Amino acid sequence: MPLDPPGQGITLLVALYRAGPWEAQAGILAAISVLALVAGASLLTARRQVRRRVKAEQALRTEYAFRQAMEDSLTVGMRARDLSGRVTYVNSAFCQMVGFEAETLIGQDPPMPYWVPEDYERTQAVHDAVLAGTPYPSGFELRFQRRTGERFDALIYEAPLIDADGKHTGWMGSFVDITARKRAEESQRQQQEMLQQNARLITMGEMASTLAHELNQPLSAITSYATGSLNRLQASGGDAELERALTKLTVQARRAGTIIRRIHDFVRKREPQLTACALPEIAQDALGFLAAEARKLGVAIHADLPDDLPLVRADRILIEQVILNLARNALEAMAAVPRGQRSLWLSAEALEDRVEVRVRDSGPGVAAAQQETLFSAFFTTKPDGMGMGLNICRSLIEFHQGRLWYEPAPDRGGLFIFTLPRAPTETPDREKAA
């Protein structure tokens, strides 16, 4: 029966021991003892080595698990590239950020699947600059897209990868999603602009109120002098042509005084006063402000405001502001329309429990992509606009428990519609004042 190599020497010695004289047997016993000790020592050494190896493997597994847990807990995306730009490593945070699995990204060459198509050139230029060793000590920002197509902004820091021999083997980049931060900064900037715009509007209102108050007295004096001169001229049987001129002067002076009083009521600080109002009167007052501007622009104004419309419960100054703003927007929207084709329609219709007002123009209308954000704060299509007019108009109508919206006109142009609730049956405010 064949013997295993480690046991062959001992077996042979045992056989010689049984066959030889006593002295030989003693030497053989000593040799067997030495071999047994050597074998035992070898076994102990091998056992220690196995234990060390098991311990080292356990420490390596523990270290790997710790490193993996640390990487999985990071919210910062990590991506490694070799010197040619090929992706060699990504952590889970980076995969979650871009929406692609690690298997898809590792080994990928530029252009990367998370690059934004319209920014390919800039992203490629930054990518090449990093591979060429261009330093970005404070990092750089790029816009990427997730697998779903959603765009996000990332702040990136790149550092060289150096192996144990000191050789440069690639680049390690850290990615921080700063989309929320940039949105917060933009929101803060818009709020700051709104505060500044509100401050300017308040200043303008105060100036307009002061001017209205100061101009009212000289206009009243002009009206009185013109009326007195006309009376004396008529009493003395004066010139008919001069009478007509003085009559026109008196009418225009009174009209100017009426406009000044409206401006003063319009801009003065006061609490809203909801009363029963006659909508045709409010609309005609608003159109009176725009009559001269409409004539200058060659816009024909068509008003369909039945006298038997039910009263609405509203603050007449605020509703006048809404109509004035919508009508002025309509005038500006027709700037590119040839003269002679510019028309503004203002109509009102009584419904079951409310009155509906329509302001329509013959302009180009509002693009479909802009209609959803038309009433958003700071949205404007005007080069010098502030983007607050329609937003304020909607707020004022909603304050009156009404609704304001936009529709494309049936044939051409834009159409703004708002509703106001009917007032309980009572006398309109102007008749009360009389």
Structural summary, described in words:
The strands form three sheets. Strands 2-1-5-4-3 form a five-stranded antiparallel sheet, sandwiched between helices. By secondary structure, the chain is an alpha+beta fold. The chain starts with a helix and ends with a helix. A hairpin with a 5-residue loop joins strand 11 and strand 12. The chain contains twelve helices and twelve strands.
Intertermini distance:
135 Å
CATH C-level class of the largest domain: Alpha Beta
User: What pattern of helices and strands is seen along the backbone?
Assistant: HHEEHHHEEEHHEHEEHEEHHEEH
Please state the overall shape, judged from the principal axes of the Cα atoms.
rod-shaped
Poorly predicted spans: 382-388
Percent of residues in helices comes to 40-55%
Number of domains: 4
Widest β-sheet, arrangement of strands: 2-1-5-4-3
Q: Mean pLDDT across all residues, rounded?
A: 81
**Annotated CATH homologous superfamily of the largest domain:** Histidine kinase-like ATPase, C-terminal domain
State the total count of DSSP E strands: 12
Instruction: Please identify, by name, the CATH architecture of the largest domain.
Output: 2-Layer Sandwich
The total count of helices amounts to 12
User: What percentage of the residues does DSSP assign to strands (E)?
Assistant: 15-25%
- Rounded to an integer in angstroms, the radius of gyration calculated over CA atoms is 45 Å
What class, by secondary structure content? Answer: alpha+beta
> Could you describe the largest sheet, including whether it forms a barrel?
5 strands, antiparallel
CATH topology of the largest domain: Heat Shock Protein 90
